[in-house]
Design brief:
By secondary structure, this protein is of the alpha+beta class. It contains four helices and ten strands. Helix 1 packs across helix 2 and helix 2 (26-57) runs antiparallel to helix 3 (75-104). The longest helix has 32 residues, at 26-57.
Length: 254
């Protein structure tokens, strides 16, 4: 089983399943996936070995057409095949919990950049409140932590930059506007042009809902901000229908 696990793992880990890494959070997530792959190979190896042993050990002899012997069960075996998978799954859960907790609750950086992200059918709008700029493209400096505040204007959307690995749903707010975790911290660590995608089916135009993500040096980002201000500051911030009350209507509606 050990040899079979090693062979399978060696083959499966040759592939870059998640693609390019472009954030500080991508590495731990990819490592988590690799660990899950190895655990899966181990479980699959157990199944294959036991299946092969059973086929060989209990095969019918040539010419034997009699019924098989009655089976009354094996308590020790049943306990073993319950406990072992449970331990493996719990180990994966604990490791996943630790990794995701470290990623989703990092220490706030002193130079954190806040960006308000608005999603609506079928476009993205990005507001930089400290820079007084809005854009239909997400421009950010490399190696600087982003404090993304996510707002759905109409229906449920989902924010995902594949190279950053992190994904977060955007849910229309309730009456108190405190019911949804609508923030995401991520630190891009590689310059380049990527895409932010909506991964929650939001209507007929869902497949077209994407926007460019441009990660540049700090100086390039400052130049972009200056140019955006000279151009009038960018498009207006989307205005939604207002928070929804528990009764299903809009807050403040008569």
């Amino acid at each position: 089983m050990v040899v079979l696990t090693i062979v399978q793992s060696a083959i499966m880990l040759q592939f870059d399943w998640n693609g390019e890494q472009a954030s500080a959070e991508a590495g731990p997530i990819d490592t988590l996936l690799d660990v899950m792959i190895v655990l899966s190979c181990f479980v699959f190896s157990i199944v294959l070995v036991m299946l092969g042993y059973s086929i060989w050990k209990y095969r019918a002899k040539p010419g034997d057409e009699s019924d098989g012997e009655p089976i009354h069960g094996n308590t020790k075996l049943e306990i073993a095949w319950t406990v072992i998978p449970t331990v493996i799954v719990l180990a994966g859960v604990v490791y996943s919990w630790i990794v995701l907790n470290d990623i989703e609750e990092p220490a706030a950086a002193a130079d954190q950049l806040r960006v308000n992200v608005y999603a609506q059918q079928y476009k993205w709008t990005f507001e930089y409140p400290d820079q007084d700029v809005t854009s239909n493209e997400l421009h950010v400096p490399v190696d600087r932590q982003l404090d993304l505040h996510l707002t759905a204007v109409d229906v449920i959307h989902s924010f995902w930059v594949p190279e950053w690995r992190l994904k977060r749903d955007l849910v229309p707010q309730g009456a108190e506007e405190t019911e949804v975790d609508d923030t995401l911290l991520v630190t891009p660590d590689r310059e380049g042009t990527y895409s932010v995608l909506c991964t929650e089916l939001c209507g007929f135009g869902h497949a077209t809902m994407s926007a460019p993500v441009v990660v540049t040096s700090e100086s390039e980002f400052d130049r972009w901000v200056a140019e955006a201000k000279r151009g009038g500051g960018g498009p207006p911030v989307p205005q939604g229908p207002g928070p929804v009350t528990s009764g299903g209507g809009e807050a403040g509606a008569s």
